[in-house]
Amino acid sequence: MAERALKLRISSHDYFLAQYSVCSNFRNAAKWVQSSLSATEMEIFRALPWGHLIDISPTQFSGQVFQMLALHLVQEQPDEELWFAIGGTLYKFTYVDFCRISGLPAGAEPLAGAGDVSGQESGDEAEPVGTIAKKYLGGSVDITHINLKNIFEKLKLSKRRDQMDVIKLASLFYIKCVLLAKDNTTRINASSVRLVNDLEEFKKCPWSLRSYKLLVSHMKGLMDGQPQKFKDRKENNPNYRNAKLSVY
């Protein structure tokens, strides 16, 4: 392997220690959905493209492993792949690998009406908000993870709740918390709130591709400028030991 292909984005001289906070709420999201849905509703949920993830045993996130991978990203690589140079060997992580590990179906390019991983909206703002927004969101598609959870808590107490509406809201919540996890105060794409009105169309949306692209873009951008920030903070505070970083 050519030396150029193994050149790292961050020089070994600029390595630093870091502590990570994880935005993806995988474990709590699973517990919350399982405690909120009936046995029949859970059976329907498990049959969805992402439903199998609900039963995966909890795993411990390793900040050390993530830090090691982030520091070993090579400088030149395809935009939609992750290449790591470790011990003189080049390792590649692709969308195919992501789908194989997660069990999520591989999807084509995102649908026009479902937004994108950057959080930018797509579609016409004048597009009808749909039944879900009218019934549970006060006619608004401007909602965060926390808002959605509060609405669902009220719905859990209703004796006349619509089963499919529950599935739709739970799906929107789960994808927001796990596959496209960001800070809890981040707004959910309005286009996704509209799309969930039709569960069949919502299922067709390539959420696996969205999740993978978010992972790749975040990991590649995570270390941008961080070595210098660490040095500056270390100079101002000799006791500074670990950078504080967030992982989606």
TrEMBL record:
Residues 75-217 form the DUF1985 domain. InterPro entries: DUF1985. Pfam families: DUF1985 (PF09331). This is DUF1985 domain-containing protein.
